[in-house]
Design a protein that fits this description.
Layout (H helix, E strand, L loop, with lengths): L1 H25 L14 H10 L14
């Protein structure tokens, strides 16, 4: 049982490091992340549609 717990803990630690690294590289201070709100929806839509020849990634995270 100790080995399984160690492997699980290691996996969780690696995932947390990857997420934190991504936040550091692509977060609000260094990347192009946008918080989608009603006030900036038109601007977001124009930017998203304008990047038709570029890579586009859309991630929706909901607390519920």
């Amino acid at each position: 049982m100790g080995t399984l717990r160690t492997k699980t803990l290691s996996l969780v630690a690696v995932i947390v490091l990857i997420v934190l690294g991504g936040w550091y590289l692509y977060g609000p201070s260094g990347g192009h992340l946008t918080s989608l709100k009603e006030a900036n929806f038109v601007q977001f839509t124009a930017q998203f549609d304008g990047a038709a020849n570029d890579d586009r990634v859309l991630v929706l995270v909901s607390p519920t």
